[in-house]
Write a structure and sequence with these properties.
single chain; about 475 residues; mainly alpha; globular
């Protein structure tokens, strides 16, 4: 219990430090996660498939860390050094070269992969379906609470972020972050969690019965209470996302919700005995999501206007083109992880405007990763996505009643993958840690064995046919 409390504190801590974007808070998180891993990871997994996924994550972590360490090594007559070091020698004389243009920054940035270790720790801490379901539920309440607090602060003190004065994105909700797009990703992930869990609870609850009892909470069953909490949480997340006015987050979440509703009602399993119930449930979920989307349209008129008036961000397209050229010139070894701010100015086109004329991120995580680590980044990303995809699709095919978990995992990956095409939200540790914990819960439910666990201990669930059990 104590280890789990520490784990959730790790997820809350970034909210107190603007997403843990600075070295010091991220170093604290990394040390806590590393100690937790040392304590927990020697214990064997109860299920071999979970052990395999954990092993893949650890291999990816080791490969990335060793690659960055190798990039940061400074040696005389280094055969792998970046060509920039030859130019430096022509100016200052003999100097040790490295594969990275910024070796000290590359070495310091090894800690940015702590979410991979967080994923492994979460697999150990929540390694059965009941515990994984608890993890997803707490994550949904956590994001909803952050959304409610952010909305209150935005309405009552719009010129503040946390305990400081807001200096950027005036008029947009940024929550506990500095950047509204990062906040949009955070609340977008929360929307996916709440919508998926709501779809699960709607299997066993009636919206009509809930509406008739909502003014008398004492009459609500456990299922109806959980359904009500998910609806309120979903509303908080949607309003917070809308208030961020983030075009990328809004569009990616909209596409993700379409995917979520489709996946919850798809598959051969849903056409069996439980199919007559799943179709109405899907329409109820679609109706709720539609109402939430209407609220988004009302609140986020500025974001929608920006989508229409600025459908193509010329500055970002210019930056993508310049970054792609930098990737080609530094392929296949890369210029050193974390070196983008130092390498990009040499490739930047004059047409690439930015915040105060400066681009410190590529606004495309794939291009920035390929520039920094070259082919290693591409290979590790492919391995990680393949392993996660296998785990979640396996859950999608094998789970019936617990189908919501792989659906949440796949939809979250889709939302983050789409937004990463036009922004760097997943490079914010707070978002990466949330996604790591979420995926751990979804993978555990997808690959764990059939349990006796039932998250809805309610008379309504007891009346369900045995064929509906997963």
């Amino acid at each position: 219990m104590g280890m789990r409390a520490v784990f959730f504190l790790v997820l809350v801590f970034p909210m107190l430090t603007f997403g843990a974007v600075d070295f010091e808070p991220l170093a604290v998180i990394t040390m806590v996660v590393a100690v937790s891993a040392a304590i927990m990871c020697w214990r064997p997994f109860p299920y071999p498939r979970l052990s395999f996924i954990s092993g893949v994550a650890l291999v990816c972590l080791v490969v990335l860390a060793l690659t960055q360490y190798g990039q940061s090594l400074r040696l005389l007559d280094n055969p792998w050094e970046h060509p920039a070091w030859s130019y430096i020698r022509s100016l200052v004389g003999p100097v040790e070269g490295a594969l990275s243009v910024t070796p000290e920054q590359t070495k310091a940035d090894i800690i940015v992969w702590s979410p991979l270790l967080t994923f492994v720790v979460a697999l150990h801490l929540f390694n059965c379906r009941g515990e994984a379901f608890l993890l997803l539920s707490i994550l949904s309440y956590l994001v909803a609470a952050m959304a409610a607090i952010s909305l209150c602060q935005f309405l009552l003190a719009p010129m503040t972020v946390g305990f400081e004065t807001k200096t950027a994105y005036i008029g947009s909700l940024t929550g506990f972050y500095i950047n509204r797009n990062s906040a949009g990703t955070y609340f977008g992930i929360g929307i996916v969690i709440n919508a998926g869990l709501l779809g699960f609870y709607l299997q066993s609850s009636s919206l009509r019965a809930l509406a008739s009892k909502v003014l008398n909470p004492g009459r609500l069953t456990n299922v109806e209470k959980a359904t009500f909490y998910m609806i309120v949480g979903l509303l908080m997340d949607v309003l917070a996302l809308a208030a961020t006015q983030s075009r990328g987050a809004t569009a990616s979440v909209f596409i993700g919700l379409i995917c979520l509703v489709w996946l919850l009602n798809g598959g051969k399993r849903r056409r069996r005995r439980s199919a007559p119930r799943s179709i109405p449930r899907g329409w109820r979920l679609a109706l709720i999501v539609s109402l939430m989307s209407t609220a988004t349209v009302v609140v986020a008129q500025e974001a929608i206007y920006r989508m229409g008036a600025q459908s193509v961000d010329q500055a970002r397209l210019c930056t993508f083109s310049s970054t792609a050229q930098a990737v080609r010139d530094n392929w296949p070894l890369g210029s050193g992880f974390g070196s983008f701010p130092d390498v990009f100015p040499a490739y930047r086109s004059p047409q690439c405007s930015g915040i105060e004329g400066v681009w410190d991120a590529a606004h495309n995580s794939y291009l920035e990763g390929a520039l920094g680590m070259g082919i290693v980044f591409v290979v590790v990303l492919g391995v990680a996505l393949t392993a996660l995809g296998w785990a979640l699709v396996t859950g999608l095919l094998e789970r019936s009643r617990y189908r919501f978990a792989p659906v949440i995992g796949l939809t979250s990956l889709l939302v983050v993958a789409l937004h990463s095409l036009v922004d760097f939200s997943l490079q914010i540790p707070g978002n990466a840690l949330l996604l790591a914990a979420l995926l751990a819960g979804c993978v555990t439910i997808s690959l764990g064995e059939r349990p006796s666990f039932d998250p809805i201990a309610d008379t309504a669930m007891q009346r369900r046919p045995a064929a509906d059990q997963s």
